[in-house]
Amino acid sequence: MFDLLKRYWKVLNSPSVHFSLAFLTLGGFVAGVIFWGGFNTALEATNTEKFCISCHEMRDNVFAELKSTIHYSNRSGVRATCPDCHVPHEWTDKIARKMQASKEVWGKIFGTISTRDKFVEKRLELAQHEWARLKSNNSLECRNCHSPDSMDTTRQSPRAVEAHEKFLFTGEKTCIDCHKGIAHHLPDMSGVPEWQ
Amino acid sequence: MKMTPKWLMALAIIAIAGAAYAAEPITTLRSTAPDQESAAPRISNFEDTDQKRPRNYPEQPPTIPHDIEGYQIDKNANKCLSCHARSRTGESGAPMVSITHFMDRDGQFLAAVSPRRYFCTQCHVSQRQVEPLVGNSFVDIDALLPNNSTRIAE
Fold first, then answer.
1. Count of domains forming chain A
2. Is Cell division tagged as a keyword (chain B) (predicted)?
């Protein structure tokens, strides 16, 4: 075993005999472009709504619920897709989230939420993951579109103005603290703080 | 001729009734004939303020002065109570659910909202700015009675 490793190390460690330096440099560059591009293309492909709802777990449960909310259908016709809220936009954060999502691939293979009953059973846990994520990153995915700086409170209802001035602008609370269940149905909220 | 024949009387009644029936258009909410599709009225926005609307009579469930679109009220969650519950009113500044809602059907007070009063929108509703389809002649009790102070003076 050790001999085998030693032999490979020798091959890697010795200069190239048959290929020119230019070929290796340019070839490496071209291969790098192809692999990097391919990686990012594949990454972006998993970052589309079409990809998400290609699984029945997402299409029949959470996507069906999204359809009746303001994030799917509204007066201006601008809408949020799954990754807009569930995948960070920054590259490093995105890769970190995608690594976490390998757990979801496991769940898909073993049918963790393959039926409606299983999904409903697991809904609170799944929701808590998302609440914890948004709480810890100060509702980053909300803020990608909704910026407090651009909020014109004169265009908001008196109730909204009061709540935003008291809790959002002071930084006392973040979006997800009050706006749970705006895009999907809520799980059983008994025991969740601030809920009955 | 001592008496109008019965058949003539009957004919006269039918004629008069028919004329009356034809003269008065039938009251209906339908704007077009039943076999034609009528244009749907525009949906107006919900009123969305924080101003209480006074009740029209003491037992009236207060109307909701704000928009409640998308508020989930089911066995899992009650969005209304996340502001109007007793423990939440301090932070939200919303009026507390009436104490009568803590009472079960035997008149016993419970620790939280009674299950029979849990579904808020059974009685409380938001308002849209629309013309009433059917008029009504309801008169507020205060308007109906003569001025209270003058009555006491008498």
1. 1
2. no
